[in-house]
Amino acid sequence: MVDNSLLNEVQEALLNGDHTTAKDILMKLVRGDQKNPIFWLYLSAVMETKEEKTSCLQNVLRLDPENIEAKKGLRLLGEVDEIDAFSQIEWKKPSVSRVFSADFYSLSANEDKNKEKTPEEIKKQKNIRIAAASIGFVTVLGLLIFRPFAPTVYVYPTATVGEVFSLVENTATLISETIVPTKAAATATPGVHYTATPEYVSTQHAGDYYRLAMNSIRDGEWEEAIYYLNILTKTEEEKADIYYHIGEAYEMSGDYRKAYSNYGLSVKEDFQFGPGYLGIARMEMELYSVESSKENLDKALKYAPDFVDVYLLRADYFTKMGLFEKALVELDEAESLSSENGYVYLKRAQVYYDQSDFEKALAQALLAKDYFYRMNQESPLLAQIYLALGEGNEALVLYQEYMKANPEDLFGELNLGLAYLTMGDYDKAIDLFEGLTDVKGVRNYAFTYLGRAYLDEGDLEKALPALSSGAALNPYSYEAHYYLARGYEEAGQSTNGFRSYVSALKQEMTDHQRIQVLYEFALFCENFDLKDEAERYWDELGRYSSDELPENIYEDLVERYPKYKPTSTMVPTSTPFATRTATVVTEE
Q: Which of 75, 379, 484, 569 is placed for a possible disulfide with 467 were both Cys, Cβ 3.0 to 4.6 Å?
């Protein structure tokens, strides 16, 4: 049985920044019971060097091979080989993709315990703690400091316990048993995972319900987490972070409206609670429009300027608005806060991809790849970049590897179908899309892409019904209307085609996407001898500067629309934008 009174003393010392006292108590506990994994887990949090922390966590796994906290701690330290030496951690995948960040292994070891904090410092620390609560990295010290303890009996595995390597007085020394720790990995590969696992919170909450809620969130058990957190809303005085966690649990389970409501309650409890505004902004993007999120993104920045996720979401905002330079500025800010964050590189790759600068996009996506250990999160975008560069085989391999690692990702499956489509393997693409037309959540996309496959294959009889279903199921997707318009154009139905192009232009899209649709619409009008309408859309296309237009569209515009006056020197893109290639699918 764990001595809870001593562990509570350790917790109190850590909260006060007194690492020396915490370490002294833990050394006594370890000497008294060398085969208690909890003692070793705590000890890892107060050791100074990476080697000492690693040795402590190795001991935890020797005593408890399935200990998730120790595995995640070793992963965070970059000791991937050490995890494999015991057993590979099983990552749980949330039903809704979410971006999180990570850069918190420990609180500052140099923090002066007697220093009185200013209100600004308290506010900053509060935001940093809730920031880590939103991220997907379980940090060992965060786990130890902020998990409340109630008088609980802990039961340990009855499996045979191996030998234990011990640390006493900062030096690696042997206690009664002899073992040489496994050699550490030669290079550290940072890991990023995106499951919501709160370990830092803005307020200390005591009792079993809070502990159970946090454990449920770490395990991806969203319904259980919501149940326990709702109990806490009736018992806790300070509950802004409680509502925030409820919102996050709803978001991760795909219920955006309830997530939106609870994020709102979090800022109602505390109007300076920055992460709450970030949650609201994220849900506004999902439920309403990108533009509607701007006000709450600004509030998130005001009240949580040290929260890296704020800058990542602001980069998303500017990317979707087509303001790519501003998006890159936000990503530079994010990188300054968290220099080893894979999402910074991944989002930067997306910005360059949306600008059709595929070489730069490829370089950033390859950098991101180093940060997603065995999770393949960068694979869909990286595959799409390879497709744009004409390297279809590389793209197919990446999509196939991604689906092996993420078999339940239906959007990944759609992208695999798009890769087959782009490579001209229509049979495989059609089989895959047909299998998804009855699957809730992706059937709207599946119908559109099935129609595209039939359209590219030349089967208009099958293409038009599928494309019509896609547009009906996904009325706010410019892509659904755009491909339906192309289908009508192929079938010679000018009136229906015209209406579908108009519908496409009414939907939200980036400037690059709008340029593509305007270009195709102008050509459509010319093909059907709609001269006035053609001039109208050439004119609208001509409002873009020559720098913004892909080379082939620019040349056509100059040739077909003499009124166009270039505003600057042409900067060609790496490939013609009008090339009809597959588009990477993301959850909307």
A: 484
